[in-house]
Amino acid sequence: MKYGLVLSAAMLSALACYSMAWAGQPQDDYSRMRGANYVPSYARNDLQTWLDYDPAVIDRELGFAGRLHLGTVRIFLQVAVYERDPKQFLERFENFLALCAKHNIQAMPVVFDSCFGEFPDLQKYREKDWMACPGQNRLGKEHWPALEKYVRDVVGGHKDDKRIVMWDVMNEPTCTRFKKPEDRDLIWTFLGHFLDYVREQDPNHPRTVGVESSSLIAKVVDKTDVLCFHNYTRNLREDIRSVMELARRHGKPAIINEVVRRPGQPFAFAMPILKEERIGWCFWELMLGSTQFSRGTDPIQGVVYPDGTSRDVREIAAILEVSEAEAQKLFPERPKPKVEEGGVTYVGFWTRWTGKGPRQDRLFYATQAGASAAWTFTGTGAALVHKIGPDCGIARVLIDGKPVPTPEIDTFSPTVEWNRRTVLAKGLPDGPHTVTIEVAGKKNPDSRNVYVQVVDFEKE
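Request: output the structure for the sequence above.
Response:
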Protein backbone atom coordinates (compact mmCIF):
# COMPACT_ATOMS: atom_id res chain seq x y z
CA MET A 1 0.00 0.00 0.00
CA LYS A 2 1.33 3.43 -0.93
CA TYR A 3 1.10 6.33 1.49
CA GLY A 4 2.19 9.19 -0.74
CA LEU A 5 0.25 12.41 -0.20
CA VAL A 6 0.21 15.13 -2.85
CA LEU A 7 0.62 18.55 -1.27
CA SER A 8 -2.01 21.04 -2.33
CA ALA A 9 -1.14 24.63 -3.14
CA ALA A 10 -2.61 25.68 0.21
CA MET A 11 -0.50 23.15 2.08
CA LEU A 12 2.65 24.24 0.27
CA SER A 13 1.82 27.85 1.04
CA ALA A 14 1.32 27.03 4.71
CA LEU A 15 4.63 25.21 4.85
CA ALA A 16 6.34 28.12 3.12
CA CYS A 17 4.88 30.52 5.69
CA TYR A 18 6.09 28.28 8.48
CA SER A 19 9.57 28.18 6.97
CA MET A 20 9.54 31.96 6.56
CA ALA A 21 8.67 32.33 10.24
CA TRP A 22 11.87 30.49 11.03
CA ALA A 23 13.74 32.38 8.34
CA GLY A 24 12.92 35.60 10.16
CA GLN A 25 15.41 34.68 12.88
CA PRO A 26 19.03 33.56 12.61
CA GLN A 27 19.29 30.14 10.97
CA ASP A 28 20.86 28.64 14.07
CA ASP A 29 18.39 30.18 16.55
CA TYR A 30 15.99 27.55 17.87
CA SER A 31 14.92 29.45 20.96
CA ARG A 32 11.32 29.64 19.70
CA MET A 33 10.99 25.91 19.04
CA ARG A 34 7.79 24.52 20.61
CA GLY A 35 7.36 20.80 20.20
CA ALA A 36 6.46 17.39 21.55
CA ASN A 37 7.78 13.88 21.28
CA TYR A 38 5.24 11.95 19.26
CA VAL A 39 4.37 8.27 19.41
CA PRO A 40 0.99 7.53 17.79
CA SER A 41 -1.59 6.52 20.38
CA TYR A 42 -1.88 3.03 18.92
CA ALA A 43 1.86 2.28 19.31
CA ARG A 44 3.71 0.88 22.34
CA ASN A 45 7.06 1.45 20.63
CA ASP A 46 8.70 2.76 17.46
CA LEU A 47 8.37 -0.60 15.68
CA GLN A 48 4.61 -0.45 16.06
CA THR A 49 4.57 3.16 14.85
CA TRP A 50 5.81 2.05 11.44
CA LEU A 51 4.70 -1.61 11.18
CA ASP A 52 1.07 -0.76 12.03
CA TYR A 53 1.26 2.65 10.36
CA ASP A 54 -2.14 4.38 10.45
CA PRO A 55 -2.21 7.67 8.55
CA ALA A 56 -5.75 8.53 9.69
CA VAL A 57 -4.75 8.37 13.36
CA ILE A 58 -1.53 10.29 12.74
CA ASP A 59 -3.36 12.97 10.76
CA ARG A 60 -5.83 13.49 13.61
CA GLU A 61 -3.15 13.54 16.30
CA LEU A 62 -0.86 15.91 14.43
CA GLY A 63 -3.95 18.11 14.28
CA PHE A 64 -3.91 18.09 18.10
CA ALA A 65 -0.26 19.20 17.98
CA GLY A 66 -1.23 22.04 15.68
CA ARG A 67 -4.06 23.04 18.01
CA LEU A 68 -1.45 23.24 20.79
CA HIS A 69 0.58 25.62 18.57
CA LEU A 70 3.44 23.14 18.35
CA GLY A 71 5.76 23.57 15.38
CA THR A 72 7.91 20.47 15.88
CA VAL A 73 7.35 16.79 16.56
CA ARG A 74 10.20 14.47 17.47
CA ILE A 75 9.55 11.07 15.87
CA PHE A 76 11.50 7.84 16.34
CA LEU A 77 12.57 5.92 13.23
CA GLN A 78 13.51 2.21 13.33
CA VAL A 79 16.11 0.49 11.16
CA ALA A 80 14.62 -2.97 11.82
CA VAL A 81 11.38 -1.89 10.12
CA TYR A 82 13.33 -0.31 7.26
CA GLU A 83 15.29 -3.52 6.68
CA ARG A 84 12.11 -5.61 6.66
CA ASP A 85 10.73 -3.62 3.71
CA PRO A 86 12.77 -0.53 2.72
CA LYS A 87 10.31 0.67 0.09
CA GLN A 88 7.32 0.48 2.41
CA PHE A 89 9.17 2.17 5.28
CA LEU A 90 10.28 5.07 3.07
CA GLU A 91 6.75 5.49 1.72
CA ARG A 92 5.38 5.64 5.23
CA PHE A 93 8.04 8.12 6.33
CA GLU A 94 7.20 10.27 3.30
CA ASN A 95 3.53 10.16 4.20
CA PHE A 96 4.35 11.16 7.78
CA LEU A 97 6.32 14.19 6.56
CA ALA A 98 3.47 15.17 4.25
CA LEU A 99 1.03 15.02 7.16
CA CYS A 100 3.42 17.17 9.22
CA ALA A 101 3.42 19.76 6.43
CA LYS A 102 -0.39 19.66 6.31
CA HIS A 103 -0.42 20.80 9.95
CA ASN A 104 2.44 23.33 9.61
CA ILE A 105 4.80 21.13 11.62
CA GLN A 106 8.42 20.18 11.07
CA ALA A 107 9.80 16.78 12.06
CA MET A 108 12.85 16.01 14.18
CA PRO A 109 13.52 12.37 13.22
CA VAL A 110 15.54 10.22 15.62
CA VAL A 111 17.82 8.02 13.48
CA PHE A 112 19.15 5.66 16.19
CA ASP A 113 18.08 5.05 19.78
CA SER A 114 20.01 3.42 22.60
CA CYS A 115 17.28 3.80 25.20
CA PHE A 116 16.66 0.67 27.32
CA GLY A 117 18.70 -1.56 25.01
CA GLU A 118 16.23 -4.34 24.24
CA PHE A 119 16.73 -5.56 20.69
CA PRO A 120 13.94 -4.93 18.15
CA ASP A 121 11.45 -7.80 17.96
CA LEU A 122 9.57 -7.90 14.67
CA GLN A 123 7.37 -10.80 15.82
CA LYS A 124 6.19 -9.76 19.29
CA TYR A 125 6.48 -5.98 18.92
CA ARG A 126 2.84 -5.43 19.98
CA GLU A 127 3.59 -7.06 23.34
CA LYS A 128 6.77 -5.15 24.16
CA ASP A 129 7.60 -1.70 25.45
CA TRP A 130 10.39 0.53 24.20
CA MET A 131 13.13 -1.11 22.12
CA ALA A 132 16.50 0.12 20.90
CA CYS A 133 17.63 0.98 17.37
CA PRO A 134 19.71 -0.83 16.17
CA GLY A 135 20.43 -2.55 19.51
CA GLN A 136 23.62 -3.27 21.43
CA ASN A 137 24.35 -6.33 19.29
CA ARG A 138 24.69 -4.27 16.09
CA LEU A 139 27.04 -1.48 17.11
CA GLY A 140 30.24 -3.15 15.88
CA LYS A 141 31.96 -2.06 12.66
CA GLU A 142 30.91 -5.23 10.88
CA HIS A 143 27.30 -3.94 11.00
CA TRP A 144 28.04 -0.42 9.76
CA PRO A 145 27.65 -1.06 6.00
CA ALA A 146 24.04 -2.24 6.42
CA LEU A 147 23.24 0.67 8.75
CA GLU A 148 24.87 3.13 6.36
CA LYS A 149 22.45 2.01 3.66
CA TYR A 150 19.59 2.89 6.01
CA VAL A 151 21.12 6.33 6.64
CA ARG A 152 21.71 6.93 2.92
CA ASP A 153 18.08 6.21 2.08
CA VAL A 154 16.48 7.98 5.02
CA VAL A 155 18.81 10.92 5.67
CA GLY A 156 20.37 11.31 2.23
CA GLY A 157 16.96 11.02 0.62
CA HIS A 158 15.76 14.12 2.54
CA LYS A 159 18.79 16.38 2.46
CA ASP A 160 16.81 19.23 0.88
CA ASP A 161 13.56 18.60 2.75
CA LYS A 162 12.22 21.67 4.53
CA ARG A 163 9.78 19.49 6.45
CA ILE A 164 12.71 18.35 8.60
CA VAL A 165 14.11 20.75 11.19
CA MET A 166 17.14 18.64 12.22
CA TRP A 167 18.33 15.06 12.64
CA ASP A 168 18.62 13.64 16.16
CA VAL A 169 21.31 11.08 15.32
CA MET A 170 20.92 9.02 18.51
CA ASN A 171 18.58 9.22 21.47
CA GLU A 172 20.13 8.78 24.93
CA PRO A 173 23.32 6.99 23.84
CA THR A 174 24.17 5.40 27.18
CA CYS A 175 20.66 4.87 28.55
CA THR A 176 20.85 1.15 27.89
CA ARG A 177 21.52 -2.10 29.72
CA PHE A 178 25.24 -2.72 29.23
CA LYS A 179 26.41 -6.31 29.49
CA LYS A 180 30.06 -5.29 29.88
CA PRO A 181 31.91 -1.98 30.48
CA GLU A 182 33.45 -1.82 27.00
CA ASP A 183 29.94 -1.64 25.51
CA ARG A 184 29.76 1.99 26.61
CA ASP A 185 32.89 2.85 24.61
CA LEU A 186 31.45 0.98 21.63
CA ILE A 187 28.41 3.26 21.65
CA TRP A 188 30.54 6.42 21.47
CA THR A 189 32.61 4.97 18.62
CA PHE A 190 29.41 4.03 16.78
CA LEU A 191 27.86 7.43 17.37
CA GLY A 192 30.96 9.34 16.30
CA HIS A 193 31.03 7.47 13.00
CA PHE A 194 27.35 8.02 12.26
CA LEU A 195 27.45 11.70 13.19
CA ASP A 196 30.06 12.01 10.45
CA TYR A 197 28.05 9.83 8.08
CA VAL A 198 24.84 11.79 8.59
CA ARG A 199 26.74 14.99 7.81
CA GLU A 200 28.16 13.37 4.67
CA GLN A 201 24.69 12.34 3.49
CA ASP A 202 23.00 15.62 4.44
CA PRO A 203 25.16 18.72 4.76
CA ASN A 204 22.07 20.96 4.94
CA HIS A 205 20.24 20.00 8.13
CA PRO A 206 21.72 20.41 11.62
CA ARG A 207 22.67 17.34 13.63
CA THR A 208 22.01 16.88 17.31
CA VAL A 209 22.12 14.10 19.90
CA GLY A 210 19.45 13.96 22.63
CA VAL A 211 21.71 12.96 25.52
CA GLU A 212 20.05 11.79 28.72
CA SER A 213 22.13 14.14 30.88
CA SER A 214 23.68 17.52 30.16
CA SER A 215 26.96 16.13 31.53
CA LEU A 216 27.26 14.01 28.37
CA ILE A 217 27.11 16.90 25.90
CA ALA A 218 30.91 17.14 26.02
CA LYS A 219 31.06 13.70 24.38
CA VAL A 220 29.38 14.98 21.20
CA VAL A 221 29.85 18.75 21.24
CA ASP A 222 32.47 18.76 18.46
CA LYS A 223 30.32 16.81 15.99
CA THR A 224 26.86 18.24 16.68
CA ASP A 225 25.46 21.50 15.33
CA VAL A 226 22.86 21.93 18.07
CA LEU A 227 23.52 21.06 21.72
CA CYS A 228 20.67 19.01 23.13
CA PHE A 229 19.85 17.35 26.44
CA HIS A 230 17.04 15.86 28.54
CA ASN A 231 15.92 16.88 32.00
CA TYR A 232 13.12 15.48 34.18
CA THR A 233 14.18 17.01 37.52
CA ARG A 234 13.56 20.08 39.66
CA ASN A 235 16.99 21.50 38.79
CA LEU A 236 15.69 22.36 35.32
CA ARG A 237 16.53 26.07 35.41
CA GLU A 238 20.08 25.53 36.66
CA ASP A 239 20.65 22.80 34.09
CA ILE A 240 19.41 24.99 31.23
CA ARG A 241 21.67 27.86 32.27
CA SER A 242 24.67 25.54 32.42
CA VAL A 243 23.96 24.20 28.90
CA MET A 244 23.31 27.68 27.50
CA GLU A 245 26.66 28.83 28.84
CA LEU A 246 28.35 25.83 27.20
CA ALA A 247 26.51 26.64 23.97
CA ARG A 248 27.75 30.23 24.06
CA ARG A 249 31.34 29.08 24.56
CA HIS A 250 31.08 26.82 21.51
CA GLY A 251 29.08 29.25 19.40
CA LYS A 252 26.21 26.81 18.95
CA PRO A 253 22.48 26.87 19.75
CA ALA A 254 20.89 24.62 22.38
CA ILE A 255 17.53 22.91 22.83
CA ILE A 256 15.95 20.49 25.28
CA ASN A 257 14.02 17.77 23.48
CA GLU A 258 12.78 15.73 26.43
CA VAL A 259 11.25 17.50 29.43
CA VAL A 260 8.21 17.28 31.78
CA ARG A 261 7.29 14.24 33.86
CA ARG A 262 4.68 13.86 36.57
CA PRO A 263 4.80 14.24 39.47
CA GLY A 264 8.20 15.84 40.04
CA GLN A 265 8.38 18.10 36.99
CA PRO A 266 4.83 19.03 35.90
CA PHE A 267 3.93 21.47 33.14
CA ALA A 268 3.07 24.20 35.64
CA PHE A 269 6.66 24.02 36.88
CA ALA A 270 8.51 23.49 33.59
CA MET A 271 6.73 25.73 31.07
CA PRO A 272 7.46 29.09 32.75
CA ILE A 273 11.13 28.14 33.14
CA LEU A 274 11.49 27.14 29.48
CA LYS A 275 9.97 30.46 28.44
CA GLU A 276 11.99 32.59 30.83
CA GLU A 277 15.27 30.89 29.88
CA ARG A 278 14.44 31.25 26.16
CA ILE A 279 15.29 27.72 25.13
CA GLY A 280 13.54 25.66 22.48
CA TRP A 281 11.80 22.52 23.72
CA CYS A 282 9.97 19.30 22.91
CA PHE A 283 8.13 17.80 25.88
CA TRP A 284 7.53 14.07 26.29
CA GLU A 285 4.94 13.20 25.06
CA LEU A 286 1.94 14.45 23.08
CA MET A 287 -0.47 11.52 23.35
CA LEU A 288 -1.98 9.63 26.25
CA GLY A 289 -1.65 6.38 24.39
CA SER A 290 0.07 3.00 24.57
CA THR A 291 3.68 3.61 25.64
CA GLN A 292 4.75 2.63 29.14
CA PHE A 293 4.99 6.34 29.93
CA SER A 294 1.51 7.39 28.83
CA ARG A 295 -0.88 4.52 29.51
CA GLY A 296 -2.72 3.57 32.69
CA THR A 297 -4.92 5.48 35.09
CA ASP A 298 -2.20 7.86 36.27
CA PRO A 299 0.49 8.07 33.56
CA ILE A 300 3.65 10.06 34.12
CA GLN A 301 3.49 11.67 30.65
CA GLY A 302 1.09 12.47 27.81
CA VAL A 303 -1.46 15.29 27.63
CA VAL A 304 -4.17 14.48 25.04
CA TYR A 305 -6.33 11.37 24.72
CA PRO A 306 -7.02 9.94 21.24
CA ASP A 307 -10.54 11.43 21.29
CA GLY A 308 -9.16 14.95 21.81
CA THR A 309 -10.00 15.25 25.50
CA SER A 310 -7.34 16.17 28.04
CA ARG A 311 -6.22 14.62 31.30
CA ASP A 312 -5.81 17.98 33.01
CA VAL A 313 -6.95 21.20 31.38
CA ARG A 314 -4.41 23.13 33.45
CA GLU A 315 -1.66 21.37 31.52
CA ILE A 316 -3.19 22.52 28.24
CA ALA A 317 -3.40 26.05 29.62
CA ALA A 318 0.27 25.95 30.64
CA ILE A 319 1.38 24.78 27.18
CA LEU A 320 -0.72 27.36 25.34
CA GLU A 321 -0.36 30.15 27.92
CA VAL A 322 -4.12 30.70 27.96
CA SER A 323 -6.83 30.59 30.61
CA GLU A 324 -8.24 27.28 31.79
CA ALA A 325 -11.58 28.26 30.24
CA GLU A 326 -9.96 28.74 26.83
CA ALA A 327 -8.03 25.49 27.20
CA GLN A 328 -11.25 23.67 28.10
CA LYS A 329 -12.81 24.75 24.79
CA LEU A 330 -9.87 23.30 22.83
CA PHE A 331 -9.33 20.06 24.77
CA PRO A 332 -12.22 19.33 27.17
CA GLU A 333 -11.03 17.73 30.38
CA ARG A 334 -12.18 14.18 31.06
CA PRO A 335 -14.11 13.61 34.29
CA LYS A 336 -11.73 12.71 37.08
CA PRO A 337 -11.64 9.07 38.25
CA LYS A 338 -13.65 8.39 41.42
CA VAL A 339 -13.02 5.56 43.89
CA GLU A 340 -14.72 4.79 47.21
CA GLU A 341 -13.09 2.67 49.89
CA GLY A 342 -13.43 2.53 53.66
CA GLY A 343 -16.04 5.28 53.62
CA VAL A 344 -13.65 7.70 51.85
CA THR A 345 -14.33 9.06 48.35
CA TYR A 346 -11.16 9.66 46.32
CA VAL A 347 -11.57 11.93 43.28
CA GLY A 348 -8.68 12.47 40.87
CA PHE A 349 -5.59 10.47 40.08
CA TRP A 350 -5.02 8.59 43.31
CA THR A 351 -2.98 5.40 43.48
CA ARG A 352 -3.83 2.65 45.94
CA TRP A 353 -0.62 1.31 47.55
CA THR A 354 -0.37 -1.82 49.65
CA GLY A 355 2.53 -2.81 51.90
CA LYS A 356 3.78 -2.86 55.46
CA GLY A 357 3.66 0.39 57.41
CA PRO A 358 0.26 2.07 57.16
CA ARG A 359 -2.78 0.87 59.07
CA GLN A 360 -4.44 -2.08 57.35
CA ASP A 361 -1.37 -2.22 55.08
CA ARG A 362 -2.71 0.24 52.51
CA LEU A 363 -2.88 3.93 51.68
CA PHE A 364 -3.85 6.20 48.78
CA TYR A 365 -1.38 8.75 47.37
CA ALA A 366 -1.66 11.52 44.77
CA THR A 367 0.37 14.41 43.40
CA GLN A 368 -2.03 16.18 41.05
CA ALA A 369 -3.20 19.49 42.45
CA GLY A 370 -6.90 19.36 43.26
CA ALA A 371 -7.14 15.60 43.79
CA SER A 372 -9.39 15.15 46.83
CA ALA A 373 -10.26 12.63 49.53
CA ALA A 374 -13.57 13.24 51.36
CA TRP A 375 -15.01 11.55 54.47
CA THR A 376 -18.45 12.15 55.97
CA PHE A 377 -18.97 11.60 59.69
CA THR A 378 -21.32 12.54 62.51
CA GLY A 379 -19.67 14.26 65.48
CA THR A 380 -17.79 17.37 66.55
CA GLY A 381 -14.28 16.78 65.18
CA ALA A 382 -12.13 14.79 62.78
CA ALA A 383 -8.52 13.74 62.38
CA LEU A 384 -6.44 12.55 59.43
CA VAL A 385 -4.10 9.57 59.59
CA HIS A 386 -1.42 10.05 56.93
CA LYS A 387 2.15 9.38 55.96
CA ILE A 388 4.85 12.01 56.42
CA GLY A 389 8.25 11.73 54.76
CA PRO A 390 11.00 13.34 52.67
CA ASP A 391 8.94 13.34 49.44
CA CYS A 392 5.64 14.52 50.94
CA GLY A 393 3.95 17.81 50.13
CA ILE A 394 1.22 20.16 51.31
CA ALA A 395 -2.46 19.26 51.72
CA ARG A 396 -5.42 21.61 52.00
CA VAL A 397 -8.22 20.98 54.52
CA LEU A 398 -11.90 21.83 54.08
CA ILE A 399 -14.79 21.18 56.43
CA ASP A 400 -18.21 21.17 54.78
CA GLY A 401 -16.64 22.75 51.71
CA LYS A 402 -14.98 25.64 53.55
CA PRO A 403 -11.29 26.08 54.51
CA VAL A 404 -10.48 25.58 58.19
CA PRO A 405 -8.65 28.32 60.15
CA THR A 406 -5.30 26.64 59.39
CA PRO A 407 -6.11 25.42 55.88
CA GLU A 408 -2.83 23.69 54.94
CA ILE A 409 -0.89 20.75 56.35
CA ASP A 410 2.79 20.35 55.51
CA THR A 411 3.39 16.59 55.44
CA PHE A 412 7.14 16.85 54.85
CA SER A 413 9.48 15.14 57.30
CA PRO A 414 13.14 14.14 56.87
CA THR A 415 12.15 10.69 58.17
CA VAL A 416 9.16 8.50 57.39
CA GLU A 417 6.24 8.10 59.77
CA TRP A 418 3.44 6.01 58.31
CA ASN A 419 0.56 6.81 60.65
CA ARG A 420 0.91 10.43 61.73
CA ARG A 421 -2.35 11.63 63.28
CA THR A 422 -3.26 15.27 62.56
CA VAL A 423 -6.38 16.89 64.03
CA LEU A 424 -8.31 18.66 61.27
CA ALA A 425 -11.21 20.14 63.23
CA LYS A 426 -12.80 20.03 66.67
CA GLY A 427 -15.58 21.89 68.47
CA LEU A 428 -17.92 21.60 65.49
CA PRO A 429 -21.72 21.58 66.03
CA ASP A 430 -22.65 17.99 66.77
CA GLY A 431 -24.05 16.50 63.58
CA PRO A 432 -23.07 15.36 60.07
CA HIS A 433 -19.98 16.93 58.48
CA THR A 434 -17.72 16.26 55.51
CA VAL A 435 -13.98 16.71 55.81
CA THR A 436 -11.99 16.97 52.56
CA ILE A 437 -8.26 16.75 51.96
CA GLU A 438 -6.99 18.27 48.70
CA VAL A 439 -3.58 17.92 47.11
CA ALA A 440 -2.12 21.43 46.92
CA GLY A 441 0.58 20.57 44.38
CA LYS A 442 3.03 22.49 46.57
CA LYS A 443 5.79 21.47 48.92
CA ASN A 444 8.22 22.50 51.60
CA PRO A 445 11.50 23.61 49.93
CA ASP A 446 13.25 20.69 51.62
CA SER A 447 10.86 18.08 50.23
CA ARG A 448 11.70 16.04 47.14
CA ASN A 449 8.10 15.97 45.89
CA VAL A 450 4.45 16.89 46.50
CA TYR A 451 2.93 13.54 47.52
CA VAL A 452 -0.14 13.58 49.77
CA GLN A 453 -0.64 10.12 51.28
CA VAL A 454 -3.92 9.32 53.04
CA VAL A 455 -4.11 6.31 55.36
CA ASP A 456 -7.44 6.90 57.12
CA PHE A 457 -9.85 9.38 58.74
CA GLU A 458 -11.25 9.10 62.24
CA LYS A 459 -13.37 11.06 64.70
CA GLU A 460 -11.67 13.44 67.11
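The mean pLDDT is 92.
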